[in-house]
Design goal:
By secondary structure, the chain is an alpha+beta fold. The chain is built from three helices and three strands.
Amino acid sequence: MRKTRKTFAKRLRKTKNKKFMHRTCGQDHFNARESRKITKNKRRDKPLSKGLQKILKQHL
């Protein structure tokens, strides 16, 4: 039995359909100059690529 790698588990969440979602980068500061569209899109989680999902399934 492998242990869960907690660094990955804290940064990702798994959906019902077994997809991994991650937080969009660049949300912490310098957001006043961004347009409203970009700011709204940064609030959403984004899915990881299929290649990375395959690798991460081995680590979690």
